[in-house]
Design a protein that fits this description.
The complex is a heterodimer of chains A (779) and B (146).
Chain A lengths: L1 H27 L4 H21 L2 H18 L7 H23 L8 H6 L14 H9 L11 H26 L5 H24 L1 E3 L1 H4 L2 H12 L3 E6 L4 E3 H22 L3 H6 L6 E10 L2 E8 L6 H11 L4 H5 L3 H6 L22 H10 L3 E7 L3 E9 L4 E9 L2 E6 L3 E6 L5 E6 L2 E6 L2 E7 H5 L11 E7 L2 E7 L1 E9 L5 H4 L4 E5 L7 E4 L1 H7 L4 H17 L4 E7 L4 E5 L3 E6 L5 E4 L2 E6 L2 E6 L11 E6 L4 E14 L4 E2 L7 E7 L2 E6 L1 H19 L3 E5 L5 H5 L1 H6 L3 E3 L10 E5 L13 E5 L10 E2 L3 H13 L1
Parallel strand pairs in A: 2-4, 9-18, 13-15, 20-29, 24-26, 30-31, 30-32, 32-33, 33-34
Antiparallel strand pairs in A: 1-3, 4-5, 5-7, 6-7, 8-9, 8-16, 10-14, 11-12, 12-13, 14-15, 17-18, 19-20, 19-26, 21-25, 22-23, 23-24, 25-26, 27-28, 28-29
Chain B lengths: L2 E8 L2 E6 L5 E4 L13 E7 L2 E7 H5 L10 E7 L2 E6 L2 E8 L12 H4 L2 E7 L2 E6 L1 H8 L8
Classes of the chains: A alpha+beta (779), B mainly beta (146).
Chain lengths: 779, 146
C-alpha cells in the first residue's frame, strides 16, 4: 500500500503543478469547457484513488467538488465566481492534504465543512481556505523524496544502452576467445560479464511495475459496473505482486477493464436468473496474474452464463459479414472466437457499460500488438475463463533460431505453439491443390515453406523439414524450416524501413555469433505466402467436412440382372462371390443358392435369368446370410442423400442421384426381413465351425487367410466373445494362444518353408493348412 | 560558406558527401543478406555492436548494375537507423562551397534523384550525394530484379 500511496502523492503533486495554469485560466474564463474538463478529471482521479487508499477526507472533498463540476458540465449550474472560488479552494486544500500526508504531519479538518458548503449554490462569502496548521506544514517543507518519476523514454534509452553494452561484452568475449588469454584479463572479463548481467537485470527491473497498479482500480470498477446493471458480483484478486513491464501495463489497462466489464455486463446473470439456475445470487469474478516462464498469464474467470455461441452466430449472420450456414459449420472453439469479430456486440441493446466503442476486437488487437495471446475457455451456463498471456518485457525477446537454406531467423517463442518433425509418426503433410496442409494430431493447419517464401534454395529436397507451428491473430499455421538451431534471448530492434518494407521481418538483432539476424514477423510470412486466414478457416472446415464424408454411407454400384444399375450399402455386403452357373435354383417358390454344401436364401431381380448367374453378393447382418444375384459389380460410391419412394415396402428403398443418373437403392432391411426365417434357420443348420485367428494383431491372417478360410466354410473370428468357444484356433507359430480358448485344438503356422518338426504348417501351403484345419475341426 | 565534404568515387564518378552526414568510414566485413528486399539493400552487417543496413549506392543508381565486391562504406544515420553506403573509393575531406544544381548543369534523372547540389574541385564540377535520398530510394531500387 505504501508504494501505491507514494505513487498517488507523486501523481497528484505532478498533476497539481500542471493544473495550476489551468486553474488560473478557468478563473478568467469560467465557460471554457476544456479547462473545466481538466479540473474535473483531476478531482475525479483523486476521488477514485482515495477510495481504495482509504483517505476519507480527501475522498469527501474531491467527491463534493466532482459533484459540483458535474452539474456545471451538465449545464445545470453556471460557473459563477463563487463556485470557481469554492472549487479552487478545494483543489488547494487537496494539495495541502497531500503534502501533509507525504510529510507525515497532522492536518486538522477544521474548515473543510465550510469548503464543501461553499460549493452549494448560494450567495455568500467563500470560506477562507488555508488553515494555520496547513501553513505550518508547508513551512516545514516537503519530506525528502524517496522516489523519482522518470520518463519512459529515458528508461528506454537506458535499456537500449544496456543492450549495446551486452553486445559489446559479447563481442569482446568473442575476440578475446581467439587469443591466448592472460588469466588476469580473463578474470577482469568475468567480472565485467557478471556486472553487466547484474546491471541488465537492474535496468530491466526499472521497467517493471507490480501488476497491482493494474488490479487496484478493479474493485471500484466492479462495484460501479455491477451497480449500473443491477447485479451482485464479488471480486477476488490474486497475484498482485507479479511484476510486468510498465509499457505492458499501460497497454493492458484498457483491455483488462473492458474484459472485466464485459464479464459483469454479459457474463454474470441477474440475481434472479442466477437463483433460477441454482447458483448463488452474487456472481463470482476472479482476476489473477501469475508468471509462467517468461510470460505473464492474466486470467479473468466468471461463473456467469458463458458465451451463447448460437446467439453470436445469429448476430454475426445478421450483420451480413458471413453467411449463417458458413458460421454454423464452425466448431465450438471457432464459434467462441467469433466474439473477436469486429463490430460485434452480443448484447441486443447497448447498455451504459457496453456501447463504449471498445469491442473484443480492439482488446485482441491491443494484446496482439504486444505479442500476447488471448484464449477463451467457455463453459456454457457455467462461466467463461479468459486467459491473456503477455510477454514479460518487450525489449528482450525469447526466440527460437531457425535455418532456411543459408539464412538464419529468429522467431519469437511467444508465437510458437509447438515444433514437430514433419516425418514424426503422428504428423501427415498433404498437398491440397497448391497448398500444403499438415495434420498434427487432430488439427489440420496450412504449411508455409520458409525457403519458398524468402526465395532461397532449401537443403536437399528430400531432407525432412521441421514444422514450427505459430499462432498469429487470425489462426495457426506451420512454418517449414530446414533446421531448428537454438533458443536465444535477443535484444530486438526495429530494422531499417527498406528491410521492414518486405513485410517479413519484425526486427533485427545481433546474437552472440556477431552476425546480424532478422526476426520473422509470422503474420507477414503468412501474408507473403498468400495465406489468408479466411482461407485457412475454410480449409479447416473443408477438412472437417472431408472427415465427416468418411462417415457417409459407401455403397456398391452394380449391374442388376434386369439390366438396371442399382446400389446397395457396402456395409451389408460380406463379399462378392463368383459361383458356378446353375448354383442358383428356384425351388419351392423361392430362389436359393447352393454354396459350400449349404443352401443360402437368394434374391434376384429377374428370376428368369438365374440360370446364367455367375456373381452373387453375399449379404450378412452378422447373424443371417442372404445372397443377391447380380451381373457384375461396377464401382464403390459415396451415397448422397436418399430420396425415398413413397411406395409400399419393397426391394427398393429409394432413389439416389449419382452423376446425374437416378439409381435405385436396394433396401437390405426388406431383403433380410423377407428371408429372415429361412436365413436364420439356414444359419443354425449349417453349423459352420468357428476358427479363431491368433496372429497377435499383425493382420496378416486377416489379409491372406480369411478369404480362403471363409470360402472353405469356416466362420472366422479374431477374438472370442464372453462364453464363446471357437472350434479351433489358427495361430502363428510364435504367438501365444489367448488363455480362454485353451482346450480348443490349435493349428500353428510358420513363416519359413523349412519343416522344423514342431507340427506347424508353412503358411503359404494352402492345401496343407486346409487339411490340418479339417482334421482339427473334425477331432 | 565553405563546408567540409568527403570526396568519394561511385561507378567511376567523383562525388562529394557532406561530412556532417557521415558518422564514420568503414570497411564492411561479412554481410548477412536480407531475403525479399530490393537488390540495392545488400544486407545487414555488424559494426562493433551495432547492426547497419548495407546499401549499394551503385545499384540505387542503376538497379540493373552488376553486384561488385565493394567493401568501403560511409556510415550515416537516417531516422534513427544506421546505414552503410558502399562506395568504390574514398578520398580526402576538403572544404567547399556548395552550389545548387542549375539549369543546363543537370546530371540525368537517376543522378538527380540522389544529389542535391554540386561543388567545384580543381576545376571539375562534382555532384553532392544526398544520403537520405539514397536511403529512401534503396527500398525501391531493383525490387523487380530481386
Amino acid at each position: 500500500m505504501d508504494d501505491l500511496l507514494q505513487e498517488f502523492i507523486a501523481e497528484t503533486r505532478e498533476t497539481l503543478e500542471a493544473l495550476s495554469s489551468e486553474i488560473v485560466a478557468w478563473e478568467a474564463a469560467p465557460d471554457d469547457r476544456a479547462r473545466l474538463d481538466a479540473i474535473f478529471r483531476f478531482v475525479h482521479t483523486v476521488k477514485g484513488s482515495c477510495g481504495f487508499l482509504d483517505l476519507p477526507r480527501l475522498s469527501r472533498l474531491s467527491h463534493a467538488a466532482e459533484d459540483t463540476l458535474c452539474e456545471v458540465r451538465d449545464g445545470k449550474r453556471r460557473p459563477d465566481s463563487a463556485l470557481v472560488d469554492a472549487v479552487l479552494a478545494i483543489v488547494d486544500r487537496i494539495g495541502d492534504l497531500v503534502e501533509a500526508i507525504d510529510a507525515g504531519l497532522p492536518l486538522t479538518d477544521e474548515g473543510e465543512d465550510d469548503l464543501i458548503a461553499a460549493l452549494a449554490p448560494r450567495i455568500g462569502n467563500p470560506a477562507t481556505a488555508a488553515t494555520p496548521v496547513a501553513a505550518a506544514a508547508m513551512a516545514a517543507g516537503r519530506a525528502p523524496l524517496r522516489s523519482v518519476r522518470l520518463n519512459v523514454d529515458l528508461l528506454d534509452r537506458m535499456m537500449s544502452g544496456m543492450s549495446d553494452m551486452v553486445l559489446v561484452r559479447n563481442e569482446l568475449v568473442r575476440r578475446l576467445r581467439d587469443t591466448d588469454l592472460d588469466p588476469a584479463v580473463e578474470a577482469a572479463l568475468e567480472r565485467l560479464s557478471s556486472s553487466v548481467a547484474d546491471m541488465r537485470d537492474a535496468v530491466t527491473r526499472t521497467r517493471m511495475q507490480k501488476i497491482e497498479t493494474l488490479f487496484s482500480p478493479l474493485p471500484r470498477i466492479v462495484r460501479d459496473t455491477a451497480a449500473v446493471v443491477g447485479k451482485a458480483v464479488s471480486l477476488t484478486v490474486d497475484g498482485s505482486d507479479v511484476e510486468l513491464d510498465r509499457e505492458m501495463i499501460e497497454v493492458m489497462r484498457d483491455p483488462l477493464v473492458h474484459l472485466v466489464r464485459n464479464a459483469i455486463d454479459h457474463g454474470v446473470e441477474t440475481p434472479m436468473e442466477r437463483r433460477a439456475a441454482g447458483k448463488r445470487e452474487s456472481g463470482r469474478l476472479h482476476v489473477s496474474a501469475r508468471q509462467s516462464g517468461n510470460q505473464i498469464v492474466i486470467e479473468i474467470i466468471d461463473d456467469g452464463r458463458g458465451i451463447d455461441t448460437d446467439r453470436l452466430v445469429a448476430k454475426l449472420a445478421a450483420t451480413g459479414q458471413r453467411s449463417e450456414s458458413e458460421l454454423r459449420k464452425l466448431n465450438d472453439r471457432q464459434r467462441c472466437e467469433l466474439v473477436f469479430a469486429p463490430g460485434l456486440s452480443s448484447r441486443d441493446t447497448a447498455t451504459e457499460i457496453s456501447g463504449r466503442g471498445v469491442g473484443m476486437d480492439v482488446v485482441r488487437a491491443a494484446i496482439d500488438q504486444i505479442g500476447g495471446r488471448i484464449t477463451l475457455d467457455n463453459k456454457p451456463g457455467r462461466g467463461l475463463r479468459i486467459a491473456v498471456q503477455v510477454p514479460l518485457t518487450l525489449s528482450i525477446v525469447s526466440t527460437i533460431v531457425v535455418r532456411a537454406g543459408a539464412h538464419r531467423f529468429a522467431i519469437s517463442r511467444q508465437t510458437i505453439g509447438e515444433i514437430v518433425n514433419e516425418r514424426a509418426a503422428n504428423i501427415r503433410v498433404d498437398q491440397l491443390g497448391d497448398n500444403r496442409i499438415a495434420r498434427i494430431r487432430d488439427r489440420r493447419i496450412p504449411v508455409v515453406d520458409l525457403c519458398e517464401v524468402i526465395g532461397v534454395a532449401a537443403d536437399a529436397p528430400a531432407a525432412p523439414k521441421m514444422l514450427v507451428v505459430v499462432t498469429i491473430g487470425a489462426g495457426d499455421f506451420a512454418i517449414a524450416v530446414d533446421e531448428v538451431l537454438d533458443t536465444e534471448e535477443l535484444v530486438v530492434k526495429p530494422a531499417a524501413p527498406a528491410v521492414m518494407a518486405t513485410g517479413l521481418y519484425a526486427g533485427q538483432t545481433l546474437p552472440d555469433t556477431g552476425r546480424p539476424m532478422l526476426m520473422l514477423d509470422c503474420a507477414g510470412v503468412a501474408q507473403a505466402a498468400g495465406l489468408s486466414f479466411a482461407d485457412a478457416m475454410d480449409l479447416e472446415i473443408e477438412a472437417e467436412e472431408a472427415a465427416e464424408a468418411d462417415h457417409r454411407v459407401t455403397a456398391l454400384l452394380f449391374d442388376d440382372l434386369d439390366g438396371r444399375r442399382r446400389v446397395i450399402p457396402l456395409a451389408v455386403i460380406d463379399r462378392i462371390e463368383r459361383i458356378r452357373a446353375g448354383s442358383l435354383q428356384q425351388s419351392a417358390g423361392r430362389i436359393r443358392l447352393a454354396i459350400d454344401g449349404r443352401i443360402v436364401p437368394a434374391e434376384a431381380s429377374d428370376p428368369a435369368a438365374i440360370e446364367r448367374v455367375t456373381t452373387v453378393l453375399r449379404l450378412t447382418d452378422g447373424v443371417m446370410e442372404v445372397a443377391y444375384a447380380i451381373v457384375d459389380a461396377v464401382d464403390i460410391v459415396m451415397l448422397p442423400e436418399l430420396a425415398p419412394t413413397g411406395e409400399v415396402p419393397g426391394p427398393i428403398a429409394g432413389i439416389v442421384l449419382l452423376d446425374g443418373e437416378q439409381i435405385e437403392q436396394i433396401d437390405p432391411l426388406w431383403l433380410f426381413e423377407r428371408h429372415a426365417r429361412e436365413a436364420a434357420s439356414a444359419l443354425v443348420a449349417r453349423g459352420r465351425p468357428t476358427c479363431l485367428l491368433a496372429d497377435g494383431g499383425s493382420g496378416w491372417m486377416r489379409a491372406f487367410l480369411r478369404p480362403m478360410l471363409e470360402q472353405a466354410g469356416y466362420r472366422i473370428v479374431e477374438r472370442v466373445e464372453e462364453g464363446e468357444r471357437p472350434t479351433l484356433v489358427l495361430a502363428q507359430a510364435d504367438i501365444a494362444v489367448p488363455v480362454p480358448v485353451a482346450g480348443a485344438p490349435v493349428v500353428r503356422l510358420r513363416a519359413s518353408p523349412a519343416d522344423i518338426g514342431d507340427g506347424s504348417i508353412y503358411r503359404y501351403d494352402r492345401e496343407g493348412v486346409l487339411r490340418a484345419l479339417r482334421i482339427a475341426a473334425g477331432g | 560558406m565553405p563546408q567540409l565534404f568527403l570526396l568519394a568515387t561511385i561507378v567511376g564518378q567523383e562525388v562529394a558527401i557532406r561530412s556532417d552526414h557521415v558518422e564514420s568510414v568503414v570497411d564492411i566485413g561479412e554481410i548477412t543478406p536480407v531475403a525479399r528486399t530490393s537488390r540495392a539493400v545488400r544486407g545487414l552487417a555488424a559494426l562493433r555492436s551495432r547492426v547497419v543496413t548495407v546499401i549499394d549506392t551503385a545499384i540505387v543508381l542503376d538497379p540493373a548494375a552488376p553486384l561488385a565486391a565493394r567493401r568501403r562504406a560511409v556510415v550515416t544515420q537516417v531516422d534513427g537507423h544506421h546505414y552503410a553506403l558502399l562506395v568504390d573509393a574514398l578520398d580526402d575531406a576538403h572544404r567547399f562551397v556548395p552550389k545548387p544544381l542549375s539549369a543546363g548543369l543537370l546530371p540525368g534523372a537517376a543522378w538527380a534523384a540522389i544529389t542535391n547540389g554540386l561543388i567545384e574541385h580543381e576545376g571539375r564540377v562534382v555532384l553532392i550525394l544526398d544520403l537520405p535520398a539514397i536511403v529512401a530510394r534503396a527500398a525501391d531500387a531493383g525490387r523487380v530484379a530481386a
